[in-house]
Prior knowledge:
Distance between the termini: 56 Å
Low-confidence stretches: 1-20
Mean pLDDT: 95
Number of domains: 3
Strand order of the largest sheet: 3-15-18-19-20-21-22-23
CATH superfamily of the largest domain: Glycosidases
Number of helices: 11
Helix content: 10-25%
Largest sheet: 8 strands, parallel
CATH class of the largest domain: Alpha Beta
Structural class: alpha+beta
Radius of gyration: 27 Å
Strand content: 25-35%
Bound molecules: alpha-L-arabinofuranose
Amino acid sequence: MRTLKILFCTILLSAIVQQASAQHQLVVDTQKPIADIAPTMWGVFFEDINFAADGGIYAELVKNRSFEFRNPLMGWKVRGLSVDKGELLIVNQKENGAINPRFVRATLSTENEIQGLENEGFRGMGIKQNENYQFYIMLRSLEPSVKIKVEIIDNNNQIIGSNSINATLSEQWNEFTTSIKANQTIEKAKLRVLFEGQGTIDIDMVSLFPEKTWKNRPKGLRADLVELLNGLNPGFVRFPGGCIVEGYTLDERYQWKKTVGPIENRVLIKSRWMDEFSHRAAPDYFQSYGLGFYEYFLLSEDLGAEPLPILNCGMACQYNSKELASMDDLQPYIDDALDLIEFANGSAQTKWGKLRAEMGHPESFKLKYIGIGNEQWGPQYIERYKEFHRVLKEKHPEIEIISAAGPTTDERNTYLWNELKKLDADIVDEHYYKPPQWFLENATRYDSFDRNGPKVFAGEYASHVNTNNKAPEARNNWLAALSEAAFMTGLERNADVVTMTAYAPLFAHKEAWQWNPDMIWFNNLEAMPTPNYMVQQAFSLNKGDKALPITENGIALTGQDSLYASTTIDSKNKQLLIKLVNVSSNSKSIKINPKGSKVDPNSQIIVETLSGQLDVFNQVGNQNNFSIQQRKVEFNKGIPQFEIEKHSLNIVKIQLK
Ligand code: AHR
């Protein structure tokens, strides 16, 4: 079946690509803009899947730092303390109403040569030579003092960095910290924490972070991963998903209120991706919520992107438990949305605005969008959405609501579009994970959409190829990315209805992924952009502010002679930003007539080209397979005329007078 699919795809693609190439004379009508390009046009979709948060962008290196995993010692090895003799116990004070109820109680003895704990990290800890790492631990005891030796060790238990703390303890929890400089780069290091002293101590929140985080924030985000997001200049950041919004059951849904405030008071939860796919099960996948809603808002602000939180609408995943909150029980879900708006935008005098201010951000996060539900479908969704819509529009008419349109483009999607139009919905979130051929054929998807209906959020999409290559990144090959580029010309041509788009999912840990393809792969030390990332970047960095028509013989290019095209203009700089996608295996000769304007004869045409073998992909550790080339082309007697390579995406920049 799989071989048949590959064959089918190959035949279809080669059918499109075999035609001979004449010169294509394209007209860009510079005086007839189609629409303004929404600043939110190209954004990012963040979901904690594939260890994207804990073990990924959240730079914490200790796994199960507060002993709250189902197995409280998962990720830990006990050193020198006898569990049999009760020298190490896990105490649970849940019944006292503690939010982070478990901690380790260790009874130290001067007779033990070594006594302590060792943490394995998330598939190891990525440690870099000459960089500093900040260690934190919370302790309490009636004993007056304890000495803590903190060591980062390699696979052979050799110390590659260490420091110690002489801690004066009290019966209150206190945090102790020290910095460690590493003398080697190790992908899979471990942390050893040894105690010297006598008597009983309580241990919690054992933590190790690189000092170099994004913006050097203590306990912050992994800088290399955020840099890649920054490199996309995204118009929005959607968070926290995806299916984790829904949860397997309603109890396991994402509840933003449990993810804000001091990190030691955030309520850890099992990740729904822990056991969704048995072939990629990850029993150690939990959400610590160290990366919570405050951090997502801050990240969006850092990136200059609109924050786009998606909330549960009273429905768990319809593929999983299919649970629904009854309509009588919907109010807490609606309150979560109202309170979130207050958390993001309310003054520091309001309950939730005050918490935001206490966390360090007295100014508003200027929230403009809120999503209600993820991949919901059916009348049950409409019934619940209606309630949210009614209340939110009454109390917060300034907020635009994103509504769900099901998991794919089938009859569920058609039904929801019809209903949502009747409800005068603002923006509808469509998802499609489809083969490359679908993306080529659907470059025209939005040509026929109602211009007076809700706007489109192409909220999750990715071209899914089948390949025999077993490397997980192999599905992120150039064929997939090229078909997305062709499709994206259709998004841009339809900028009057499409106002938000995002590839999905965003991140994947090379060893701990559940889903592929993904836009950015990483291991504990390196991050790697895929060809799909580069396509997203090419569109996003050449966004322009107005879409213009680009046609051949008066018709938009949507696959004729295997060519796809769209264009925008950067009005301030008078630069045309033309996207030309050639999916054929022949180069093409292109001539452009910028109707209604003159080109600047003193400038050159800049052509940025992404091209390659259809099966080429980047791998973590080898990122040079795929890159962008830039060339400058002289005008031919004042006329923009040039060749574009086979299997290529070209960003053509033409300076107007
Ligand atoms: O992107 C991965 C998953 O795909 C998302 O969680 C979900 O919304 C979709 O089914």
